[in-house]
Amino acid sequence: TFTPSAALQRVQPSATLAVTQKARDLKAKGIDVISLGAGEPDFDTPDHIKEAAIDAIRRGETKYTAVDGIPELKDAIVKKFRRDNGLEYMAAQVHVSTGGKPVIYNALLASLNPGDEVIIPAPYWVSYPEMVNLVGGTPVPIRAGIESRFKITPEQLEAAITPKTRWLILNSPSNPTGVGYTAAELKALADVLLRHSHVWVMTDDMYEHIVYEGYEFATIAQVEPKLYDRTLTMNGVSKAYSMTGWRIGYAGGPQALIKEMGKVASQTTSNPCSISQWASVAALNGDHSFLEARNAAFLRRRGLVLEAINASDGLVAPTPEGAFYVFADCSGTLGKTAPDGTRIENDTDFCSALLEAEAVAVVPGVAFGLEPGFRISYATDDASLKEAGLRIQRFCASLK
Ligand code: PLP
């Protein structure tokens, strides 16, 4: 028999698996499932980025590189932070790894000791608490419900901080809710952190460029420069440039931390793919005008989803500022019974019954640490979203 390590025994298997597996089973049976579970843009990587990768292959950029990024990419990242965020980082303060996820993991592994606490607003991106568990830290979720538009307050942050707090993780715009903090809201959270000099902050800015209707993206080190020396500003090319498969993420932060993150990478992943790094140079330095049309499409799709959710009995969702997710509260459906006799006790029941009855796959809120609700990803075509919206409304109307 095989016994997994104690570290892995602390990690939960993905709660989204049940739903996605069920969707796959139904599809295999020939049922027309609309899957709104995926967390990636349906757009292709822009051509100028692909061309840069092809050129890199032709030039022979196919060997090991510096572990934490080629100088050209670090330079592009330095310029990006200056241009978009008003942040000054030197190349030695920049870490590049094989996606945004490993950047976060390298930072946690480099900094956490057993028992160290990491404050994570819930609903959260599923990997934060599990990565903290994996390295032996303790995730401390703060509940941010629909009543606060899924954002934490300064009072909640103050109450969650203990002498063992090592990090606060912020993700704005958020996966799974799409809501974004304003600069003023970030400043209010920063004011709390200024009173607790032992707490560092990791900001996951992956959705910076996917924002709507005049929402102005801000990141905490920019809003409160006094936090610069204890902020890790993390970002990546996956979402903005539709480069999920290329696996490049990066961060800027204090040099001592960045150095240790490089040490982690040097003994685990080594450098991220050389070709992807050159593609990312082209992405960051290149023309960004393609974003406008893509964001216009996302905005239209967000409208389709919100319209359907808010027209459904028992569902309600706030209007998100960014990303490509809507998080719907389904508390109005609890205690009801589906036509096949299933009683809806929680959001997992809701999502399973919706999938059974109408073949629409969405991810239950429990997976993101906030019940009862579910996440819809609208990174798919308009026709599928319209049809899914009709099915969700019909399903909710069928509940008795
Ligand atoms: N952070 C957030 C909030 C995300 O939604 C994702 C992707 O789902 C990531 C990080 C990870 O990105 P990557 O694919 O670059 O590892």
Would you give an account of this structure?
The protein is α/β, with parallel strands linked by helices. The chain has two domains: 6-44 and 290-398, Aspartate Aminotransferase, domain 1, CATH 3.90.1150; 48-285, Type I PLP-dependent aspartate aminotransferase-like (Major domain) (Aspartate Aminotransferase, domain 2). The protein contains 14 helices and twelve strands. It has a seven-stranded mixed β-sheet, sandwiched between helices. It has a three-stranded antiparallel β-sheet with strand order 9-12-11. A two-stranded parallel sheet has the order 1-10. Helix 6 links the parallel strand 3 and strand 4 (138-143). Helix 4 (71-85) packs parallel to helix 11 (274-285), helix 5 (100-111) packs parallel to helix 6 and helix 5 (100-111) crosses helix 10. The N and C termini lie far apart (47 Å). It binds pyridoxal-5'-phosphate. Pyridoxal-5'-phosphate is lined by residues 39, 99-101, 125, 171, 175, 204, 206, 236, 238, 244, 249. It catalyses: L-aspartate + 2-oxoglutarate = oxaloacetate + L-glutamate. This is Aminotransferase. Its EC number is 2.6.1.-. Homodimer. InterPro entries: Aminotransferase_I/II_large (IPR004839), AspAT/PAT-like (IPR050596), NHTrfase_class1_PyrdxlP-BS (IPR004838), PyrdxlP-dep_Trfase (IPR015424), PyrdxlP-dep_Trfase_major (IPR015421), PyrdxlP-dep_Trfase_small (IPR015422).
